[in-house]
Design goal:
The complex is a heterodimer. Chain A is mainly alpha-helical. Chain A has a single domain, classed as ABC transporter involved in vitamin B12 uptake, BtuC (Orthogonal Bundle). A two-stranded antiparallel sheet of chain A has the order 1-2. Chain A has a two-stranded antiparallel ribbon with strand order 3-4. In chain A, helix 3 crosses helix 11 and helix 7 packs antiparallel against helix 12. The longest helix of chain A is centred in the N-terminal third of the chain and has 30 residues. Chain B contains twelve helices and four strands. Chain B is mainly α. Chain B has a single domain, classed as ABC transporter involved in vitamin B12 uptake, BtuC. In chain B, strand 2 and strand 3 form a beta hairpin. In chain B, about 55% of the residues are buried. In chain B, helix 2 packs antiparallel against helix 9. Chain B is globular and about 65 Å long. The chains are: A mainly alpha, B mainly alpha. At the A-B interface, helix 6, helix 11 and helix 13 of A face helix 5, helix 10 and helix 12 of B.
């Protein structure tokens, strides 16, 4: 095989092996409680990808994950572990409600204005972590998690007090009809095009612009970056801000682009963990915004198919998150392919 | 130029602020013993995990997955307690479960040469799914389980004249373990080897000591302590388990470790500060006069905000082991 081909196949193979490890571990967890893993996985994958409706629904589940994956990926490219997508996404959802539900704007501009405002709020919530990292060297894993929890209670407060739907205290006012993206089919809306375009834009930023080159250089080789005169502060700031925009967009997708509720529940029930799931999606997608799109579709399928697994076989759908975690652990090991090759010699 | 504050001066400021805070709180009519009781309860899981993480990081392995260990052991320890009919056994098996998770994490990091932060986050994500999955599979009820009261691990009551002061044996154990961990690191041969494994693993290897074994051992110890902390939350504190029982505490413990610069005694102090702020927040929130003015949601944010502020103020000047987070590869 040519070197170029190997360089392309290898990451896909690594992701594939990690996914298999995750699914096998998941099967053992099912066996431990007396469920039939083959029936469960059959229900999952047929439900997720076995029909047009299933595929559309899986894509709808994948939409927010494509962008929360960008948050983590663009962080890793600058050698940061930005796990703040969760909190930034809450703020994004809130931003979409502020403009999309509580303001009157003409139909053409309304979705765009709400989306942009949501993205800006996401970036704003990423800013403290960036500043603390640059100014005081506070590790982003701790600062972003603390900001996630503060965001959780802050957004809960706003939904419960100022933006609650009259007569339905458990959720915020739904997005107005003028602010909603058109529905393609099932619960998939045209917002997926915005999301994909954003992923492509980030890929272009990273690989086709000077600022992207600087960001990757700081991430790959900080010593060389310093020597070349690259600013690590600027790289960190850009990485956090782009990540925040992405997470904000992810939050907006669930308000402006997700029937049937078009709104945020005060428990965050309909957006909870989308930010953390993005970490696994980013890793399966090899920390590339385009790779993340495909990984998100796979994971969206797991998330949607998980409901069939629960309904038909009785396996709690949360197991899907557990499988995601095992995939992440497997992908953390750089030599996973080498280890297996040494044993099997293929 | 203003001279930066020395470490001792920071502690004095901390002590004075705590005393002032206590005075203000007592003026507002709250009992100090009650507040300290709550503070100690909240401190216990943080301190156990933080001390374990100090040992772990001294040997050169970062485990950001303590949140996940908390969650998994909290659920499983309740299961063990119900099966064996005793809160104490629940706590102990919680620690064993934590040690097992620590062992797996250690194997992944030491022999799989994993990126430790990613593996740790994987552990957290795993727990995010596994916690609710176990709750559902064991008790067939989503998200919450309350166990019989007699399974609670009972605290020790100390008479205080007109009332009594309650403290859990686990809290005392956490304090003793912190002191022991400090002595282990500073006064024993094993302690020197642990610190050397984090600082200069090549030297340890050359001296004929297996770096991997030391790191693995510390991962197991760290996991066991975090597991005990996770088991303490339902069995010694809340009296039930919910799917978000850990509520970021694994990361607050991580913040305590950073604040402490890997010193177990300081990690204990930091855990008390964070635990106390949680205790104060939850005492203040239910008091008349305050609950009408300050929304409950803002009080909920307090522990996280305090953690962030303390980190901002106290970071810098800390020395972390040079080989921290780097897998050791023999050349």
């Amino acid at each position: 095989m040519s070197k170029r081909l190997v360089a392309m196949v290898r990451p896909v193979a690594e992701s594939g092996i990690a996914v298999v490890i995750g699914l096998v571990a998941g099967a053992f967890l099912m066996l431990a409680f007396g469920y039939d893993p083959i029936r469960a996985y059959a229900a999952l994958f047929v439900g997720a990808f076995g029909s047009t409706a299933g595929i559309l629904e899986s894509l709808a589940f994948a939409m927010p994950l494509m962008v929360t994956a960008v948050t983590f990926a663009v962080g890793v490219r600058a050698a940061l572990f930005n796990i703040g997508a969760e909190g930034q996404m809450y703020l994004g959802a809130m931003g979409a409600i502020i403009v999309g539900s509580a303001m009157l704007l003409p139909a053409g501009v309304h979705p765009a204005a709400a989306t942009l405002f949501a993205m800006c709020l996401g970036a704003l919530w990423a800013l403290p972590a960036a500043i603390l990292k640059i100014w005081r060297g506070v590790h982003e894993v701790v600062s972003t998690i603390m900001l996630n929890w503060i965001a959780f209670w802050f957004v809960t407060y706003l939904v419960r007090t100022y933006f609650g739907e009259p007569g339905r205290a458990e959720r915020a006012i739904p997005a107005l009809a003028t602010a909603r993206y058109p529905v393609i089919g099932e619960t998939l809306t045209a917002m997926i095009f915005v999301v994909v375009a954003f992923c492509v834009a980030v890929a272009i930023l990273l690989w086709r612009t000077g600022i992207g080159f600087e960001l990757r250089l700081v991430g790959d080789n900080p010593e060389a970056a310093k020597y070349a005169g690259a600013s690590s502060s600027r790289a960190i700031l850009v990485s956090f801000l782009v990540g925040g925009l992405a997470a904000g967009l992810a939050g907006a997708t669930q308000i402006l682009g997700r029937p049937p509720s078009w709104t945020l529940y005060a428990t965050m029930g309909n957006i909870l963990n989308l930010g953390f799931d993005g970490i696994g999606v980013a890793l399966i997608g090899r920390n590339h915004p385009i790779g993340g799109i495909f990984a998100a579709i796979f994971y969206g399928g797991l998330a949607h198919g998980g409901r069939f697994m629960e309904y038909n076989v009785g396996v709690a759908s949360e197991l899907v998150d557990g499988i995601n975690g095992i995939i992440v652990i497997a992908l953390a090991m750089p030599e996973i392919v080498a280890i297996i090759r040494r044993r099997r010699e293929w | 130029m203003v001279r930066p504050l020395r470490r001792l001066e920071w502690y004095l400021i901390g002590v004075v602020l705590t005393l002032v805070l206590m005075y203000v709180i007592s003026l507002a009519g709250f009992g100090i013993p009650g507040l300290i009781e709550t503070g100690l309860l909240a401190m216990t899981p943080l301190a156990l995990a933080a001390v374990g993480e100090c040992l772990n990081e001294q040997a050169g392995t970062v485990n950001v997955g303590m949140e996940g260990i908390f969650l998994i052991t909290a659920v499983l320890s309740v299961y063990w307690a119900e099966v064996l009919g005793s809160g104490l056994y629940g706590l102990l098996l919680g620690a064993v479960t934590g040690a097992l998770i620590g062992l797996i994490f250690g194997l992944v990091c030491v022999y799989g040469k994993a990126n430790q932060v990613i593996a740790g986050m994987g552990l957290n994500i795993l727990a995010l799914g596994l916690g609710p999955y176990l709750l559902m599979s064991i008790w067939a009820f989503p998200g919450i389980h309350v166990f019989p009261r007699d399974l609670m691990f009972q605290p020790i009551h100390i008479s205080l004249g007109d009332g009594y002061f309650s403290i859990s044996a686990v809290t005392i154990a956490a304090i003793v373990i912190a002191v022991l961990a400090y002595l282990l690191l500073r006064r024993t041969l094993l302690g020197i080897r642990i610190r050397a494994a984090g600082e200069n693993p090549i030297a340890v290897d050359v001296a004929g000591v297996n770096v991997g074994h030391i790191r693995l051992l510390m991962c197991v110890v760290g996991g066991a302590l975090a597991g005990l902390g996770g088991a303490f939350m339902p069995l010694g504190w809340f009296g039930g388990v919910v799917k978000e029982i850990s509520a970021g505490r694994g990361f607050i413990a991580l913040a305590a470790v950073v604040f402490a610069g890997l010193n177990p005694l300081l990690a204990l102090v930091a855990s008390f500060i964070f635990g106390f702020s949680e205790g104060v927040a939850f005492t203040v929130v239910v008091s008349p006069g305050v609950k009408e003015v300050v929304p409950f949601y803002f009080v909920q944010m307090a522990p996280y905000a305090v953690t962030l502020l303390v980190l901002v103020a106290a970071i810098g000047g800390k020395k972390f082991p040079r080989a921290l987070g780097k897998p050791y590869v023999r050349e």
